[in-house]
Design brief:
- The complex is a heterodimer.
- The relative contact order of chain A is 0.15.
- Chain A is 28% helix and 23% strand.
- Chain A has one domain: Metallo-dependent phosphatases (Purple Acid Phosphatase, chain A, domain 2).
- Chain A is of the alpha/beta class.
- In chain B, α3 crosses α7 and α4 packs antiparallel against α7.
- The chains are: A alpha/beta, B alpha+beta.
- Chain A: It comes from Winogradskyella alexanderae.
- Chain A: InterPro entries: 5'-Nucleotdase_CS, 5_nucleotidase/apyrase, Calcineurin-like_PHP, Metallo-depent_PP-like, TAT_signal_bac_arc.
Chain lengths: 304, 252
């Protein structure tokens, strides 16, 4: 079994070598690799910083500041992804006046790589979301919203795979149940499917079929519901699934001082993170990869 | 042939050893506060500027005047600001409702918690309307039976809060907060009669535990945001003059 896999990989490599020739580069990158994941959620149209008299949030937030921070991190590590976990829209007059145009344009200028869809992103109806898509240079993922019978059909993928420094990163999206939360006239024929079942399918596809080194879930289902502990949430999702490395959450505006470490269905660690709301914080998760096979005894150290 | 094969295997080994096998060794996670210690990206700032100026110009345009400050905490069971909001919903929504249905709204009920800010003394701007009503909720008219109106009265008596009501309904409670009298447009409430009650979609859907709107005979969605109601209402007046009155009182 092992030998067969080796031969398969060997022949694939030879084929590659035959086409492109073997560059020196593949021999140089034997040192540690680092992938940086930056994330926001529930920014809710907060483009300007909060004013000096805003009590708890005084002088915090602001897209122009976030831009310089993201740029500095990217300069330090080009192998960076910038993700948003939904509810980009609604919360300041910018949305009421421009319908999300400025939010998407600024996210494009900040070079966001990917976003998922929150319930408030339907606030101008599914047509309102669709109308702003030309302003977004980034893509949207949602694996459990079925948009087949809506205007958004083909504009939202279940997942997207990024290749950074030879590391394959699969990111899939999850959205919250819309019935009872959003007016049906807004989301129209969008079908909500069970996040846990879908997440199991997605992590299998990304880990086993696509052979991703990292699997990230970009979720807007909420961190955890204390009064309804059985309700589907990021924490419950982490416990019920396997092969997900990181869940980036949103919806509940949960200000986590540091990521939560949960055990998945086979006892492995999953990180769950959420950075509150309104662009007051930027989340940063760094994944380090070492050359060589994984020595099970050592495992992965997590520093939060 | 043999040599070629050896070379191939060697190459494959070399590539595998230094390129393919990587494993996740360490994860670090943190959050970074966005605050004034960070520089603003000047390109982004310059891009936002015209949008901000346009929004502010519009938000800061003066549309009316408040001779004093109105707060939802001034008053027992009815407040000047709440009365203004409920009466504004009636005044602005009823023509829309009437033109679509030929019927009239009987009265308006909103929620005390839905008044999100004071109206400060001085110029009223569009921004005032955004502060008082930052949410996107809009007006709905519900067709209810008198029996449901009576459930609503029980709710109001128990809540003991100044939930905004329009001037068309009069309610008095006794010293024990028990319902004493209630009329709609100066007439007794009849159990079998149909009433058209305007509220917002949040309350209609059970917000603030106002469960008496369902089930109902009919729902009319006006697609008229409460905030726009306020803006339209302010624009029609040089000066507002809401007062605390007798519409919902306790007789001690």
């Amino acid at each position: 079994m092992k030998r067969r896999k080796f031969i398969k990989q060997a022949s694939a490599t030879v084929a590659l070598a035959g086409i492109g020739g073997l560059g020196l580069q593949s021999f140089q990158s034997s040192s540690r690799k680092r992938i940086t994941i930056l994330h926001t959620n529930d920014v809710h149209s907060h483009i300007d910083p909060f004013g000096p008299n805003d009590g708890r949030n005084a002088n915090k937030g602001g897209v122009a500041r976030r831009a310089s921070l993201v740029e500095a991190i990217r300069n330090e590590n080009p192998n960076t992804l910038l993700l948003d976990a939904g509810d980009i829209f609604q919360g300041t007059p910018y949305f009421n006046y421009y319908g999300g145009e400025l939010e998407f344009k600024l996210m494009s200028m900040l070079k966001y790589d990917l976003a998922t869809i929150g319930n408030h992103d339907f606030d101008n109806g599914i047509e309102g979301l669709y109308a702003q898509l030309p302003n977004a240079d980034f893509e949207f993922v949602s694996a459990n919203y079925d948009f087949s019978n809506t205007i958004m059909d083909t504009h939202v993928k279940p997942y997207k795979i990024f290749l950074k420094d030879g590391i394959k990163i699969g990111v899939f999206g999850l959205g919250i149940q819309l019935e009872g939360l959003v007016d049906k006239r807004m989301y129209k024929e969008t079908v909500y499917n069970d996040p846990v079942e879908i997440a199991q399918d997605m992590s299998r596809i990304l880990k086993t079929d696509e052979k991703c080194d990292l699997v990230i879930c970009l979720s807007h289902i909420g961190y955890f519901y204390k009064k309804f502990p059985e309700r589907v949430s990021d924490i419950n999702l982490a416990r019920a699934t396997k092969d997900i490395d990181l869940i980036i959450g949103g919806h509940t505006h949960t200000f986590l001082p540091k990521p939560t470490i949960e055990k998945n269905s086979i006892g492995k660690n999953v990180l769950v993170n959420q950075v509150g709301a309104y662009g007051l914080y930027l989340g940063q998760i760094d994944f380090y990869f070492e050359p060589g096979k994984n020595v099970e005894a050592k495992g992965t150290s997590i520093i939060v | 042939m043999f040599l070629k094969r050896i070379t191939t295997i060697f190459l494959a080994f070399a590539v595998l050893a230094c390129n393919k096998e990587y494993h996740l060794s360490k994860i670090e996670g943190k959050r970074i506060e966005i605050n004034d210690s960070l520089n603003e990206d000047q390109k982004i700032e310059a891009y936002i500027k015209p949008f901000r100026q346009n929004v502010n110009k519009n938000l800061d345009s003066v549309i009316s005047y408040a001779p004093k400050t109105y707060s939802k905490t001034d008053g027992e069971l009815n407040t000047a600001i709440g009365n203004l909001m409920a009466d504004a919903v009636y005044e602005e929504s009823n023509p829309v409702f009437n033109s679509r249905t030929g019927k009239n709204i009987d009265f308006v009920i909103l929620n005390h918690g839905g008044i999100r800010s004071i109206i400060p003394k001085g110029d009223i701007t569009t921004r005032t309307a955004y502060s008082v009503m930052p949410f996107e909720n809009s007006v709905v008219v519900v067709q209810l039976k008198g029996t449901q109106i009576k459930e609503m009265l029980i709710y109001l008596a128990l809540a003991k809060r100044a939930h905004p009501l329009s001037k068309h309904i009069q309610i008095s409670l006794d010293s024990d907060f028990q319902l004493k009298t209630a009329t709609i447009n100066n007439a007794e409430i009849e159990s079998d009669k149909t009433y058209y009650v305007a509220t917002n979609d949040y309350l209609y859907n059970g917000g603030d535990r106002m469960t008496f709107f369902k089930p109902n005979d009919s729902l009319f969605v006006l697609d008229y945001k409460i905030r726009n109601v306020l803006i339209d209402y302010f624009k029609k007046r040089d000066t507002i003059n809401p007062v605390i009155d007798e519409r919902f009182i306790q007789i001690k």
